[in-house]
Amino acid sequence: MRLLFVFFLCAILYLSFFPWSFDRPPLPMTFEPIRTVSDLEDFVANILLYVGMGALAVFALRRNSRPAVLGVLLFGGLFSLAVEWSQRFIPTRDPSWRDVLANTLGSGMGALAASLFLRSAFEPLLRRLPMVRPFPVLMTIFWLTANGYPFIPFLRRPQLMRSWESLQHPQFFSLETGNILVGTVLLYVIFRRCELSPRQADLCLAGFCTVFLAQAVLSSWTLSPARVASAAAGCLIAMTLFRTPSPKKLQALAAVLVLWIVYRELYPFQFQRTALPFNWVPFEGVFN
């Protein structure tokens, strides 16, 4: 659990410091009130990002006392302050006290939720869940993030109409369909390798696949028949072939995954936007 907490901090740092270029004159940190829906989405996203960090910190400490919760709250606030202060020097970043407030609230909410969980009768379940294994949890988080971010409902007529029109005129794309199908199967195999029972793995996979139905009301997506069909096909294949993941089946799945990655990398594509300078520091000298 401590390793997972460290991984989570590294992921936050990576996302917060991208594109890793500290060559801008420092900007002052301001506190901008929430005026638009976009501001509200950004505020909620910052809270949710640090909820996971706060919960993982308490799970790593294995303490549910009030000092532990307050300590995680303080750590989250100071960590966020350091990140926002550093963003003053990063182009395309907007340091804000509002983000510090959201991140601190998220840390406290996550720590409090984890503390209550450890005090409840459900605490023994923690040892049976894949939470104790960093790799499966990280893969699950990445999968959910890729298919649902920013997880903000957008219940307005234009968004619902776009989803309805996409259902009336379905379009299937090989890359999108393959990504979801392969990802769903891999997710199920991860669950089974985490010593979850077949029934528990089925329930977890079914729950996660509801993300594709929820895309009808998420702000950055429209409900696509290709996504829903691919998720359903992935569930069917996973529950049929990998309910008992033998070594031969896993080797076959690994081969399929390698072939799919090769296909993806060789698939022809064309940029639809004007090319911009590549300024990510680790590779800047190579591309420029």
Describe what this molecule looks like in 3D.
The chain is mainly alpha-helical. The protein is 66% helix and 0% strand. It is built from eleven helices and no strands. The chain has helices spanning 2-17, 37-61, 66-86, 97-119, 134-148, 157-168, 174-193, 198-214, 225-241, 247-266, 284-287. α2 (37-61) packs across α3 (66-86), α2 crosses α4 (97-119) and α3 runs antiparallel to α4 (97-119). It is globular and about 50 Å long. The protein starts with a helix and ends with a helix.
Contiguous uncertain segments of 5+ residues: none
Shape: globular
Mean pLDDT metric: 76
* Helical stretch tally: 11
Helix content: 55-70%
Counting helices, strands and paired strands, the structural category is: mainly alpha
Q: What's the β-strand tally?
A: 0
User: How large a portion of the residues is in β-strands, by DSSP E?
Assistant: under 5%
Helices and strands, with pairings:
Layout: H1 2-17, H2 37-61, H3 66-86, H4 97-119, H5 134-148, H6 157-168, H7 174-193, H8 198-214, H9 225-241, H10 247-266, H11 284-287
